[in-house]
Specification:
The complex is a heterodimer of chains A (129) and B (551). Chain A has five helices and five strands, in the order βαβαβαβαβα. With 129 residues, chain A is of the alpha/beta class. Chain A has a single domain, classed as Rossmann fold, CATH 3.40.50.2300. A five-stranded parallel β-sheet of chain A has the order 2-1-3-4-5, with helices on both faces. In chain A, α3 links the parallel β3 and β4. Chain A starts with a strand and ends with a helix. With 551 residues, chain B is of the alpha+beta class. Chain B has two domains: 267 residues, Beta-Lactamase; 150 residues, Heat Shock Protein 90 (2-Layer Sandwich), CATH 3.30.565.10. In chain B, the strands form four sheets. Chain B has a five-stranded antiparallel β-sheet with strand order 2-1-5-4-3, sandwiched between helices. In chain B, a hairpin with a 4-residue loop joins β1 and β2. The two termini of chain B are 43 Å apart. The relative contact order of chain B is 0.07. The chains are: A alpha/beta (129), B alpha+beta (551). At the A-B interface, α1 of A face α8 and α9 of B.
Chain lengths: 129, 551
């Protein structure tokens, strides 16, 4: 049983709800929010280990959200999720400290694997710190 | 169009260069020659005039001397003394001792009787009465008389000088015959060069001396009529179609005219020589200018053509790039918009699948149908995903990148783009890749553009029913990768094969091809450090060979 906490940020509600349901069905501690602001609000109370963050969102976009997350909680790992695998946003995300970026649509198992890897890295980083 | 444009430009440059260099050269030469010619001609004329005056003066002097000698002789001796032929002979010998110019002497009374005579024609002239001769009357009225040259009784050209003396109440005449040769010799001294001539004419334009060329003494000279000339002059005249220089001098005593005639080609030969050298230098200059103009223009045109070609290629590359960039943006937009719903569908299908595993639905009689349907949905989501991801990959390729590339993969991608087209045309694409191909560091999208271009051309060349072979091989010796793309189309004719990498060269119909595809491919390959060559056999097909450096 994985003990990590995951938060998913995506404005596409159908996608958000379904993926949360599916992860919960896999006994993963997950919650979903539909915007960058809400993600930042939820960050302190929930303190997730890994955040899956959509790059393109109305209002505060993924990159901006990532920047804020890294400011508030540098050890939280972020996986960028994008329907537009443009190299720039990917590279930009990585430069800002994202763990990886994944292109939609993605198979859930693949995504989960990335989440596990990200969590492992977090553990290592925390151990060091 | 290209050829005509360069041809026209070539002529324009050549003609302008020639115009601006030859015309000033010509004007300079002409002006200098004109000035030189004018001053030289003037000098020649002046010389001739001086010569004519000089000779005339000599003749005048000769006449003066003879007249004063004869007058002195007549005044100092009486008629009685001189009528004695022995005495006259003695006198003749004395004057002859100082000057050989006299042929004979005679004493004539006022009736015209020849009282005494000394000279070679004693028997002919002694009995002659001169009463009816023109000169006899002239001397009686003027006192001194110099005749024109005439033949007279002795039938030889000569002239006489006669002086009349008044003694008491009677007049008598001392007459001397002068050898024409003396005058002739003075005139002859003015025969200059090979064609120069000089002669004396009287007031009736009758020759008084033998000219060097044409005409004889006592005839009309072979020259314009100068008999009415009163002042010495020199001029350039055309006579009988021949250009001649003439100078005249006046013999005052007899009002004879000395004419000096010279051939300008003789006299002006230094000038003509100068003209010849001038023309030679001018022609040499013109030839040099022409050669210079042609050589510089040729190299300029060559440079220009190369620049134009480079520009055409780079322009086309830029257009191509911006076209592709726009296309890429659009593709990326579409892919993005499709990916989001696709992701939702995927998750929903995944959720159904999850549910199918969890619940008791497995007991439902249609369970298998549900499972199959969900699997199919996932399968087709994957299929759509492949397409959108490829679109995104295409968009990404618009930006120049260097990455580790497996050329076989790039070739495969290129083939996959054209597979459908090839299949419709019944063209079989066979690949034979080397498995041990090393990765290279390069821009895969640029290589893809090259391969696509060659494959496209191959498909167009074959038209319908044929085969394309693609081979890749690692050549360890040079550490490079060789790619051969071969088609069994109609091939490229020999005269065309050398031109196929030239910009704007196309064998396709007007409007179907820009003629730039291969030239762009060629420049891409060169830019990426590779080489591209073509081999073709008429009727058997074409092979493009590309060498890529392994870096």
């Amino acid at each position: 049983m994985d003990k990590f906490k995951v938060m998913i940020v995506d404005d596409e509600l159908d996608f958000l709800e379904t993926i949360v349901k599916r992860l919960k069905a896999r006994n993963i501690d997950v919650n979903g929010v539909e915007s960058g602001y809400k993600a930042l609000e939820a960050l302190e109370g929930r303190n997730p280990d890994v955040i899956i963050l959509d790059v393109r969102m109305p209002g505060m976009d993924g990159i901006e959200t990532l920047r804020e997350i890294k400011k508030k909680s540098p050890l939280t790992e972020v996986i960028m999720l994008t329907g537009h695998a443009s190299v720039e946003s990917g590279i930009q995300g990585m430069q800002l400290g994202a763990f990886d970026y994944v292109m939609k649509p993605v198979a859930l198992d693949e995504l989960l694997e990335k989440v596990r890897q990200a969590y492992e890295r977090k553990l290592i980083q925390t151990g060091k710190a | 169009m290209e050829q005509g444009y360069y041809q026209k430009l070539w002529w324009e440059i050549i003609l302008t260069t020639l115009g601006f260099s030859v015309i000033p050269l010509f004007i300079l030469g002409a002006v200098i020659y004109q000035q030189f010619s004018a001053s030289y001609s003037a000098k020649v004329m002046e010389n001739m005039k001086t010569l004519a005056e000089n000779r005339s003066a000599s003749i005048d002097l000769f006449f003066d001397e003879r007249i004063s000698q004869l007058s002195g002789l007549a005044q100092t001796n009486s008629l009685a003394q001189l009528s004695n032929e022995d005495y006259l002979h003695k006198v003749f010998n004395i004057i002859q001792a100082r000057s050989k110019s006299y042929l004979d002497l005679g004493i004539i009374d006022q009736e015209g009787n020849h009282l005494a005579y000394v000279g070679p024609y004693h028997s002919i002239l002694k009995p002659v009465n001169f009463k009816n001769e023109d000169w006899f009357h002239a001397v009686l009225s003027t006192g001194v008389y110099v005749s024109d040259v005439f033949l007279g009784f002795r039938k030889l050209p000569h002239f006489i000088i006669a002086v009349m003396v008044r003694e008491k109440n009677q007049s008598w005449i001392l007459r001397a015959t002068i050898d024409s040769d003396i005058i002739e010799n003075i005139v002859r001294a003015a025969w200059i060069g090979k064609k120069g001539d000089a002669f004396i004419i009287n007031r009736h334009n009758i020759l008084q001396t033998s000219p060097r060329f044409g005409g004889a003494i006592l005839e009309a000279p072979n020259a314009p009529d100068f008999s009415k000339v009163t002042v010495p002059e020199a001029e350039d005249m055309t006579f009988n179609g021949e250009e001649m220089l003439f100078a005249t001098g006046i013999i005052k005593l007899k009002k004879w005219v000395l004419v000096i005639k010279e051939d300008p080609t003789d006299q002006l030969s230094p000038l003509l020589h100068a003209r010849f050298i001038m023309v030679l230098i001018f022609l040499g200059g013109v030839i040099l200018i022409i050669i210079g103009a042609v050589v510089t223009t040729r190299s300029m045109m060559k440079e220009l053509m190369i620049m134009d070609r480079k520009k055409a290629t780079s322009d086309e590359l830029m257009i191509q790039e911006s076209k592709m960039a726009a296309l890429g943006k659009m593709a990326a937009g579409i892919a993005h918009e499709i990916n989001n719903p696709l992701a939702v569908i995927g998750e929903k299908a995944g959720w159904i699948k999850d549910l199918l595993k969890m619940e008791d639905i497995s007991k439902s009689e249609n369970f298998q149908e549900y499972a199959d349907a969900v699997n199919k949905i996932e399968q087709h989501i994957n299929r759509a995903k492949t397409i959108t991801h490829r679109l995104l990959g295409f968009a990404r390729r618009m930006e120049p990148v260097t990455e580790r590339v497996n050329i076989n993969t790039v070739l495969d991608e290129s083939v996959s783009f054209l597979e459908n087209d090839a299949r419709y045309r019944n063209i079989d694409i066979q690949v034979d890749y080397a498995a041990d191909l090393p990765l290279i560091t390069s821009d895969p999208s640029q290589w893809q553009q090259v391969f696509l271009n060659i494959l496209n051309n191959a498909i167009d060349a074959i038209g319908k029913e044929g085969e394309i072979n693609i081979k890749s091989k690692h050549i360890a010796k040079n550490n490079e990768i060789r790619i051969e793309i071969n088609d069994n189309g109609p091939g490229i004719p020999k005269d065309v094969v050398t031109k196929i990498f030239d910009p704007f060269f196309t064998t396709k119909e007007v409007g179907k091809g820009t003629g730039l595809g291969l030239s762009i491919s060629y420049s891409i390959v060169e830019k990426l450090g590779g080489r591209m060559m073509v081999a073709s056999e008429d009727g058997k097909g074409t092979t493009f060979t590309i060498y890529l450096p392994v870096t």
